[in-house]
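Message: Just now I want nothing more than another pair of eyes on a protein record. I am handing you a single protein, as its sequence and its fold in token form. As I understand it, each token names a local backbone shape. Take your time, and here it is.
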Amino acid sequence: MSASFSARLAVCSWSLQPTDPTNLAQQLQDIGISRVQIALDPIREHPTVWGRIVDSFRQHNIAIVSGMFATLGEDYTTMESIRRTGGVVPDATWDENWRNIETNSVIAKQLRLKLVTFHAGFIPHEESDPAFKKLFDRILLIADRFAAKGIDLAFETGQETAETLRAFLIRLNRPNVGVNFDPANMILYDKGNPIDALRMLGPWLKQCHIKDAIRTKAPGTWGEEVVVGLGDVDWRKFFAVLRELKFNGDLCIEREAGKVGWIVRFIVVERPVVRSIKYDGNKSVTVSEILDRYKVKVPRIWLGI
């Protein structure tokens, strides 16, 4: 595995459901990846437990690549329930969410983070939708609060089409706001082809999640999250597009854990790419045909349980 690729891998802390910083560090060491995207809410909610995260991670040589915060009241029971309750859209939870976001921004600054990701909520397709201005104003408020601390924000993809998110980002016009691209979410929410979406959102790409899913066969219902490599994400094309975009950011492996969590196993294999070949005895086939035979696909990644 090349140093450039392995050096960009990280694990989402919430996928491991750690009990404290030391437990998280030990799980990361068992996996063999020493980089993590950290959930900020446990640090805010349980400072006596998570307040020693910096010292613990220093002792275990763990690096934090980015942060993530969630919002209150989210109900993922159905597609319609998360549309009503997701992100910073609902008025009933906005005041408390804003207080939590302000505190999370302080924590992110203390951790010297350069990027924090979150689900904004379903972005209306039309600006004429009454919910559009409300969400737009709230995102501006959040973006500017993090910008004042030198921190970038990235929206999780999937709850709207790439076209809608692209138009929103152009309208927002905040250089510190971009995309945390999750190809599985595009499939889980049935919001289009993740490869096409990745190309469209490339100019705003700040980080990627490595996660896989199978698309639903019943419109309006969830797809199914599966082990990476067993779903509908075309990983060969995914990494090819990242190369086209010259993206060298972090790749954070995520698995959405249930109440009892997952037993997670990461197996990462990258094969060398044959870029040229010389065979003096070749008469019947072209060099490009030989290369096609020896061509090696981009890294294969499995996330299993």
